[in-house]
Amino acid sequence: MPSWILPGRENDPVMRYKTILETSFAYSRTFNPRNIEYYWYSLWAQTLSDLVADMSNLIVVPQFPVWFVPEDDDHEDEEDGDDPEEIVRKDPDSKEMEASPRQADGDDEEEGGGGAGNVSVAFTIPEKDAEGVIVDFAIVHLKAVAQPQPKYRIRYGGWRITEANIGLLVEVKRFVSRSLTGQELHDRIHVRVAEATIDLVEQAAHLFIQDENMNSVLALAAAGPYWCSVKIYRNNVKKAMHLIRAKDPSYRPKEHPSDPKLNWNVILRVDLARSRDRLHTIYNALKEMSVLEIPAGV
């Protein structure tokens, strides 16, 4: 039985060829001499977009703030101006946000100092002691209502978003030293992917703090083209949530929970048939969030 094909690549050899070039580009010692993670973003952006290509209301968002504190309120007024003619140009020299670096520039052969938990601060003006995290990619499930009034078409295209829920968190780490082979390569890949899993636990904890009604989220941890995944439930990250809340001096915990070990599946390379079959499982889980039909006239 042939392996599953991602919807965005089905009957389209161009898209399959593009992922080959993206992988080669990230591996290249000429164009990625420092072996940094950002070169792998194109491969994963392509893969995630191809994964949900046939589901109109599932979108891939890079650098998504999974939890943040609004500056003043959560809702913009109907007349707040973000139409093109109302945009106020900001001073390019002004500092509107501060973010911790994703990683220090490292030499290809330097395996130390990478560390886990290189999480940027969300771009907002936080309240006292508030924290936010940025995940490399999120697949977001959207719901919308018709907004047919002509004055809203330039802003919303005739549709206004009423709900946005995260279905999948994705954390990508840089690949290991390209000089490694055999068991040493295998071991270092597992260490690097484990760093991504640690970040995802923290990100899921922030997400569950933000949304008290959310009970689970899919998570994908990657190092270069290698990845594994798991479904994280609220009960899996109670300790992580406790540690985040404990930074608030007013927090009074009723218990000091411990987290059970998550059963991440086996690490696979993304271009393998087994990998595509596993992505099919993620696809089916995302599809259960409900897919909106494309309305007439769009």
- pLDDT under 50 segments (min length 5)? 68-129
Distance between the termini: 37 Å
- Give the percentage of residues in beta strands: 15-25%
Q: Structurally, how many domains make up the residues?
A: 1
Structural class: alpha+beta
What can be said about the biggest beta sheet? 6 strands, mixed
Q: What is the H-and-E element order?
A: HHEEHEHEEHEH
Radius of gyration: 21 Å
Quick check: average pLDDT? 80
Widest beta sheet: strand line-up = 1-2-3-4-5-6
**In which range does the helix fraction lie?**
25-40%
Q: How many beta-strand segments?
A: 6
In DSSP terms, counting alpha (H) and pi (I) runs of 4 or more, how many helices? 6
Shape: globular
List the helices and strands and how they pair.
Layout: H1 13-27, H2 41-51, E1 58-67, E2 133-146, H3 150-156, E3 159-173, H4 182-210, E4 216-223, E5 226-233, H5 238-245, E6 268-269, H6 273-287
Summarize this entry quickly.
The chain contains six helices and six strands, in the order H-H-E-E-H-E-H-E-E-H-E-H. The protein has helices spanning 13-27, 41-51, 150-156, 182-210, 238-245, 273-287; strands at residues 58-67, 133-146, 159-173, 216-223, 226-233, 268-269.
